[in-house]
From TrEMBL:
Its EC number is 3.4.19.12. It comes from Ciona savignyi (Pacific transparent sea squirt). PROSITE patterns: USP_3, ZF_UBP. This is ubiquitinyl hydrolase 1. The lineage of its organism: Eukaryota, Metazoa, Chordata, Tunicata, Ascidiacea. The keyword Zinc-finger applies.
């Protein structure tokens, strides 16, 4: 161990790039990999017969960093270097955030200067398009600006302790996404852009090549798969009331003095409350009273953030050819039924685009208000399903999530190609009220939303011919400042221009203030 290494001045920070996969450039092994801080290449080991040792002797490069232990070594002398001036390199490799740091991200962010001299705003950082992964970049950028999700993944201890079955590769998804979020919000970057190479490779691996870097895909398919797969990787549950159901049955088992039921539900309760030292009281009623309002431990951060709930009324209708139609309508089989269904996003149907040109021989670009598309969820319209055997009312929303995702159906696929509906959706950027979509018996105090992310598709809808970009809201240092990100290109944009784009996916944040704030 040495505090005075004569080779520290040979370190070239402009060549250091820790965004790519940690593999030896010679053996392609991921075990015991070191980064040469002079040329930026990765090599395995530091023994006399290792690739790093050979590289140090052949090219006269002496300072190496272990990419897993974050310790510095001098080769071929093979001693550890201890120097506080190297802290900026370890921070770029593994950024860490404290709770005060996270609180400052949204309230007191400042323009930062990278090592290469460019200025950037933490969080508003371009992502490298390796070949055709722009559809992945816009989804990752949008999710990185959802504060509950961002704050959860900025602190690695929130998910590093989660245990998965042996050999399960889904754990890679949470690890790589956490690393990407910390790099995007790193205030001490060496460059003003990030390469999502490791994140994209984990998506390709975990989706079993359903999504690829070299082939453009659909951002909605990726977003749906990502949210569900990440929920599985974090051991999250999609059922909000599972713990209450178990507790009620636990109390009922005591009431019936059924030892088998008691043991069965006690084991389930231990599973639900394993992180809260659950101990049942002597009286089962006290146990129920103590824990029935306890938040479900296994409820994932993604379920808490994006999942809402709606109720759908449906009824079976008899065939119009039968003579006993009125008699059948009184039977229980043909009565109206109600079903509660959770949702991660709301799909909005665009009206059909006009087929003909106007009198000036120009194509007409129709426009439709967002409120017209949302009328699908007001519970007042009906449609027939399953060959007209059932009639379903449009659903009512019974619970609104903190962050609501809208998916605007722009693409229709036929036997030959993909068609795109160019209809412009007119929407306000702030303060959209969904009170008319809420069921009468639902207790939803806040119904106003503000837009935080807007994914847009430009160009031809067929594979590889169009492109995606995303609009992001950033509150600091200038409040309500909008930015447009398309791969490595970052620019500010007026909010009035956002409504003129062909929006595809939108993320809205619930406004928690009172409705009186609308008048302000």
């Amino acid at each position: 161990r040495s505090r005075s290494c004569p080779y520290l001045d040979t370190i070239n920070r402009s060549l250091l790039d820790f965004d790519f996969e940690k593999l030896c450039s010679v053996s392609l092994s991921h075990l015991n990999v070191y980064a040469c801080l002079v040329c930026g290449k990765y090599f395995q080991g530091r023994g006399r017969k290792s690739h790093a040792y050979t590289h140090s002797v052949e090219f006269n490069h002496h300072v190496f960093l272990n990419l897993y232990t974050l310790k510095f070594y001098c080769l071929p002398d093979n001693y550890m270097i201890v120097d506080s001036s190297l802290e900026d390199i370890t921070y770029v490799l593994n950024p860490t955030f404290t709770k005060p740091d996270i609180r400052q991200l949204s309230s007191d962010a400042k323009l930062m200067r990278a090592y290469d001299g460019t200025t950037y705003l933490p969080g508003i950082v371009g992502l490298n398009n390796i070949k055709a992964n722009d559809y992945c970049n816009v989804v990752l950028q949008a999710l990185s600006h959802v504060p509950p999700l961002r704050n959860y993944f900025l602190r690695e201890e929130n998910y590093s302790h989660i245990k998965r079955p042996p050999g399960d590769i889904m754990i890679l998804l949470s690890q790589r996404f956490g690393e990407l979020i910390r790099k995007l919000w790193n205030p001490r970057n060496f460059k003003a852009h990030v390469s999502p190479h490791e994140m994209l490779q984990s998506i390709v691996l975990c989706s079993r090549k359903r999504f690829q870097i070299t082939k453009q895909g659909d951002p909605l398919d990726l977003l749906t798969w990502f949210l569900n797969s990440m929920n599985v990787a974090l051991n999250g549950s999609k059922k909000r009331n599972s713990s209450k159901w178990v507790l009620v049955h636990f109390w009922w088992a005591h009431f019936l003095a059924d030892k088998e039921l008691i043991n069965q539900h006690f084991n389930l309760l231990n599973t639900f409350f394993k992180n809260t030292n659950f101990t049942p009281a002597k009286t089962p009623i006290l146990t129920l009273a103590k824990h029935q309002y306890h938040p479900l431990v296994n409820l994932g951060i993604l379920t808490k953030t994006f999942q809402g709930e709606m109720k759908i009324y449906s009824r079976k209708i008899p065939s119009p050819e039968t003579d006993i139609k009125q008699k059948l309508l009184k039977e229980a089989e043909y009565q109206e039924t109600m079903e509660r269904s959770p949702f991660l996003y709301l799909a909005l149907d665009l009206p059909a685009a006009p087929l003909y040109k106007d009198e000036l021989e120009h194509n007409i670009i129709p426009q439709v208000p967002l409120a017209t598309l949302l009328a699908k969820f007001n519970g007042q319209s009906e449609k027939s399903v399953r060959n007209h055997l059932y009639v379903k009312n449009s659903p009512y929303i019974t619970r609104l999530p903190p962050y609501l995702i809208f998916y605007i159906k722009r693409f229709t696929k036929n036997l030959f190609f993909i068609e795109k509906n160019p209809t412009i959706v007119n929407f306000p950027v702030t303060n959209i009220d969904l009170e008319e979509l809420i069921a009468v018996d639902a207790d939803v105090p806040n119904t106003c939303y503000d837009l935080v992310a807007n994914i847009v598709h430009d160009g031809d809808p067929n594979e590889g011919k169009g492109s995606y970009r995303v609009h992001i809201l950033h509150q600091s240092p200038v409040p309500n400042k909008w930015y447009e990100l398309q791969d490595l290109h970052v620019s500010d944009i007026l909010p009035q221009m956002i409504t003129l784009s062909e929006a595809y996916i939108q993320i809205w944040a619930l406004r928690k203030g009172k409705k009186a704030d609308q008048e302000n």
